[in-house]
Write a structure and sequence with these properties.
InterPro entries: AB_hydrolase_fold (IPR029058). It is built from 5 helices and 6 strands; from the N terminus they run βαβαβααββαβ. Helix content is 32%, strand content 16%.
């Protein structure tokens, strides 16, 4: 964990934590310092680990557990979007999810399936969705448009405005 425990919680799912935990830790520290949040960075191998990290982040938060935000990179970004879609079925709520470096050929590591089309946003769900544009063609823009059409508050974030990278060259 990075940042003060009494701050809002951001759960950071980054696949590089398996190969370069120090770099991901440095990124989490920068995010915590600059954004004034508590950043939880789990080591994960599969979808079960990701779900355990959601339970941990929610259970260890001092704020209401439905105020947790999730940022996922690559396949974990697809998992973050899937988590938003299925949050009520899972008995959780989320404040915001962000997908970084997502692509249509990535599979959600929680379900083992490609990301499905978003269902209509339930009235009780106030989750905001961000998708960071990447080099994956029009996938990010198409994904945001689909989420907006389903009634979700979804935003396309230009890649040059997103600074939460392990290294500036990413």
């Amino acid at each position: 964990m990075h940042g003060h425990p009494n701050l809002d919680t951001l759960l950071l799912w980054h696949p590089a934590v398996r190969t370069d935990a120090d770099a991901v830790g440095a990124l989490a520290s920068r995010i915590a310092t600059r954004s004034g949040v508590r950043v939880v960075v789990p080591t994960w191998e599969d979808g079960r680990d990701l779900l355990r990290s959601v339970r941990y982040a929610r259970g260890s938060a001092v704020h209401p557990p439905d105020q947790v935000a999730v940022v996922g990179y690559g396949e974990a970004g697809v998992a973050a979007l899937s988590l938003a879609q299925h949050q009520r079925r899972l008995g959780i709520g989320l404040r915001r999810v962000t997908c970084v470096d997502g692509a249509g050929d990535l599979v959600d590591p929680i379900s083992g399936q490609p990301l499905g089309a978003p269902s209509a946003r339930p009235d009780a769900v106030a989750t905001e969705v961000d998708v960071v544009a990447s080099g994956a063609g029009d996938w990010a823009a198409t994904t945001v448009t689909a989420w907006q059409a389903a009634g979700w508050a979804a935003t396309l974030v230009p890649a040059d405005q997103f600074t939460w990278r392990v290294s500036p060259s990413q």
